[in-house]
Amino acid sequence: MQLFIDTADIEEIRCANDWGIIDGVTTNPSLMAKVGRTTAAVIREIVSIVDGPISAEVLATEAKSMIEEGRILSQIHKNVVIKLPMTIEGVKALNWFSKNGIKTNLTLVFSPNQALLAAKCGATYISPFVGRLDDHGHDGMELIREIRTIFDNYAFTTKILSASIRSTLHVREAALAASDVATVPFKVLKDLYSHPLTDRGVEAFTSDYKKVTTK
Ligand code: E4P
After folding, report:
1. What angle do CA 175, 180, 182 make, to 5 degrees?
2. pTM listed for this prediction
């Protein structure tokens, strides 16, 4: 499973990229607001750091304006993926981007039928929001499993990008459900490394070997 980092914070992106574990980046307008910068400015910087798919979300709500906005963002770099909302207008724009060979990520996916429509129209990625479904008393991971079955039934090549990941358990479950990608906040990425037995083991090996070197 590929791992993307879900942030617009350049320092977090640099750090995770240095760790050598990330394959791409996703952003959204709320993440841009957190860092107080425009989408174009942040995306320009990210493409100079990470060599992989970078999702940039359009703000327009009508297909024509989404296409205009997405075309400009796609010209920033070949790795830019245009993130469109899973609406009628978003799917209309998706058809245009698919025909013109521009990569897309259909976001705010909350049902298997939405995923089916996006896949039929050639989306490169779809982003089912696992955490937000859990927040509303649903099983977010069940959505990933159902979409996996549908895509496999029809050999769709659209990639499942598990989003709205809140914990290491979500990452593990996404991998078990054969999600193609999980986009993960910085803190959760860092937590993926941790296990108390690893720390205890490293401490024990270090202190045991001191007995050898001091003899
Ligand atoms: C996905 O691409 C979104 O940026 C993100 O995963 C949303 O997560 P949230 O529900 O924590 O805001």
Report:
1. 65
2. 0.96
Residue 41 near residue 69, CB atoms below 8 Å:
no
The residue-averaged pLDDT of 46-65 equals 98
Q: Which helix (H) or strand (E) holds 83?
A: strand 80-85
How remote is the CA of residue 162 from the centroid of ligand 1, in Å? 9
**Cα–Cα distance between 99 and 60 in angstroms, integer?**
20
pLDDT at 152: 98
Q: Helices (H) and strands (E) in the chain — how many of each? A: 11, 8
Q: Which one of 34, 64, 83, 211 is the catalytic residue? A: 83
Q: Which residues of 38-50 are buried (b: 16+ CB within 10 A; e: fewer)?
A: ebeebbeebbeeb
Q: How far is the CA of 22 from the centre of ligand 1 (A)?
A: 17
Tell me the one-letter amino acid at 84. Answer: L
